[in-house]
Amino acid sequence: MDDYFSSEEEEEYCSDRDALDGLENDDPDYDWVPPKGPSTKVITKESLLCAQRGDLRRVMELLSLREHHARTLLIHHRWDVEKLLAVLVERGKACLFADAGVPLTEDQDLSLPRHSTSTVMCDICMEDIPGQITTRMDCSHCYCNDCWTEHFIVKINEGQSKRIKCMAHKCNAICDEATVRDLVRRRHPDLANKFDRFLLESYIEDNKMVKWCPSTPHCGNAIRIEEDECCEVECSCGLQFCFSCLSEPHSPCSCLMWELWSKKCRDESETVNWITVHTKPCPKCHKPVEKNGGCNLVSCICGQAFCWLCGGATGRDHTWSNIAGHSCGRYKEDQEQKSERAKRDLYRYMHYHNRYKAHLDSFKLENKLRETIQEKVSASEEKESALRDFTWVTNGLYRLFRSRRVLLYSYPFAFYMFGEELFTDEMTDEQREIKQHLFEDQQQQLEANVERLSKFLEEPFDEYDEKKVMDVRMHVINLSVVTDTLCRKMYECIETDLLGCLALGTHNIAPYKSKGIERAAALNAKADESDKYLPLDFGKADLV
User: Fold this and answer.
1) If you ran DSSP here, which 8-state letter would residue 323 be given?
2) Bias regions of kind Acidic residues — which residues (predicted)?
């Protein structure tokens, strides 16, 4: 049982792009080259500052704000510029600024001196303080520098450095970051650097459109998407992952389905089901006992004899027809129903897991075709033949990987889509049966064509004559187109006929892309000279 339910194989993940490393692809018959101008960007530690300043400049120019106030607004709205502008249009500038803690009278703030020229009573320490060692914030509240510094140090150590509010009672204004940096650096330079790093990394930590690459060990990159956050991306380090849940790409499974399936394969839930179906607990020591003979009088290793039919403790005297002093002919409905349900659930899980595991094994074996394909292509190109273009093999191999992956994850999807764990009340039994037949018909068509494509790609075409090679070529090209079409139709069926009628907000899936998971492009940018105070030597490991 341990071997069967082990998920160790599932944890090994292969990138279909990695499997094609070194193979060219410019076949006009079937163009799968990723499009130019990808919508996802790789943000390195060098380009993070510029990525952040791009959004800052946009808000600063639109609202005529200083950088500090623009950053405060963006952090409050999780760096979503479109959401920020929507709030501005719907609720107005006053509500936008008040909710984020930005003073409305910014023009007046620019004319007010940061330091008073006379003696000031600090309402925190209740002492008269020379104006030169006091600081006035944008909200016009003025306190001594020592009180401000202590306040800032406490907030930074508490992890609130991205939104440090004014000390005044019921004042929600956010303190000027330059003032915070200047006062803290005089006493604790390291803490000031920590404050800077928190401000910089807020672009990733607080931004729903930017996430760290989950590679291990960490590559130091972050990925920024431009559109739907339910998508699958590839980092420049080569790792492909689901942007929503940061696990391996798993569409057409939703993130919740994949999380439940991974847990089911990883834990002992099905082992428990097997024990429930095939064993009975000893009435004395309660250990599970498996029956290995035909007699219904069984004995536990603790010495206790009991009846296999009802589980009741008995003596050892028995005949072929009955156990001495024991009768259990009465039907116990609850116990029988529980056993039958556990048996049904186990067999259903085994059905889907067997097919999931079979396609996973095929996917791993087909990844090894890369070296074989390269050898066959090299041998074919050395022949004196009119056939010189063998990129159709590369295209077919890529389509095989892509389609096999769709099939692989379609079985966990079907397990939950047509089971009772997630959609018990959303469909009647009749509706569930109709939808299941619709999906399984498409799944079987795809499966049949994927297997045919795999068969033709394994042909020793380097040993064939030109006519037979052309025949294999046409089959591979046609099957590549067919499998791509079937994959697209399966996704349309899932999105429209299956999940489209249910709670899509909970079960969004990454869209199907026939050209594969898009590799994020590097964000080439340099920091401005005016931003030297922001450190660039950071990484994910630096987070505190």
Assistant:
1) B
2) 1-13
In this prediction, residue 487 has a pLDDT band, given cuts at 50, 70 and 90, of very high
How far is it, in rounded angstroms, from Cα 438 to Cα 445?
11
40, 521 Cβ separation under 8 angstroms: yes
In 10 A of CB 515, how many CB atoms?
A: 13
DSSP string, 328-364: --S--HHHHHHHHHHHHHHHHHHHHHHHHHHHHHHHH
Question: At 12, is the pLDDT very low, low, confident or very high (cuts 50, 70, 90)?
Answer: very low
Domain 119-190 has CATH 3.30.40.10: yes
Distance CA 211, CA 166 (A): 30
Q: Which residues are designated catalytic?
A: 295
117 C-beta neighbours (distance < 10 Å), count: 9
CATH 1.10.3470 is held by the domain 255-281+341-509: no
Give dist(CA 24, CA 3) in Å, integer: 39
For range 369-375, the mean pLDDT:
82
pLDDT at residue 529 greater than cutoff 80: no
- Those residues whose C-beta lies under 8 Å from the C-beta of residue 345, and which sit 6 or more positions away, are 273
Q: What is the average per-residue pLDDT within 274-299?
A: 79
What global pTM score does this model have? 0.72
Domain borders along the chain are 40-100, 119-190, 255-281+341-509
Which pLDDT score, from 0 to 100, does residue 384 have? 66
